[in-house]
Specification:
- With 110 residues, the chain is an alpha/beta fold.
- Helix content is 38%, strand content 15%.
- The protein is built from five helices and three strands.
- The protein has a three-stranded parallel β-sheet with strand order 1-2-3, with helices on both faces.
- Strand 1 (20-24), helix 2 (39-42) and strand 2 form a beta-alpha-beta unit.
- The longest helix has 15 residues, at 68-82.
- It is elongated and about 45 Å long.
C-alpha cells in the first residue's frame, strides 16, 4: 500500500473516494498473511473516514489446522480499533456447526 497519506493525482482521488471496506471471510487455502496486520500499513486508513466491516465464519476462524487465521483476524480487528478506525465485526453462523456450506453462505447473507 505504501504511504497513501502523500498520494497525489488519481491515486489520491481514488483513496479519497473510498468510504467503506468489506472483508468477507478473508481466508484462502494458502499460508499465513491473509489479514493485513502491519500497523504502518493500516495507519494509511486513519483520518480518511473509512469504515471497515469484517464478516467471518467459524469455518475460517475456528480452523484448528490453520490456527493463524483466527490470530491474524483478531490482530487485524484489534489494530484497527487501536487506530480509532470505525470497524464492525460480524461472525456469521456462530451458533451452527462449522461447515464449508456456511462459509460460502456468507455471500448470501451479505
Amino acid at each position: 500500500m505504501g504511504d497513501l497519506a502523500n498520494q497525489r493525482g488519481p491515486n489520491k482521488e481514488f483513496m479519497d473516494s473510498i468510504k467503506e471496506m468489506y472483508w468477507l471471510d478473508g481466508g484462502h487455502d494458502g499460508g499465513s498473511n491473509t489479514w493485513i496486520t502491519d500497523e504502518d500499513v493500516l495507519k494509511n486508513l486513519v483520518g480518511r473516514g473509512i469504515k471497515v466491516h469484517v464478516h467471518v465464519s467459524p469455518y475460517m476462524v475456528e480452523d484448528e489446522g490453520r490456527f493463524w487465521i483466527k490470530k491474524e483476524e483478531s490482530e487485524f480487528v484489534e489494530t484497527v480499533n487501536k487506530l480509532n478506525i470505525a470497524v464492525t465485526e460480524i461472525r456469521h453462523f456462530d451458533n451452527e456447526p462449522r461447515s464449508i456450506e456456511n462459509h460460502f453462505k456468507i455471500l448470501l447473507e451479505f
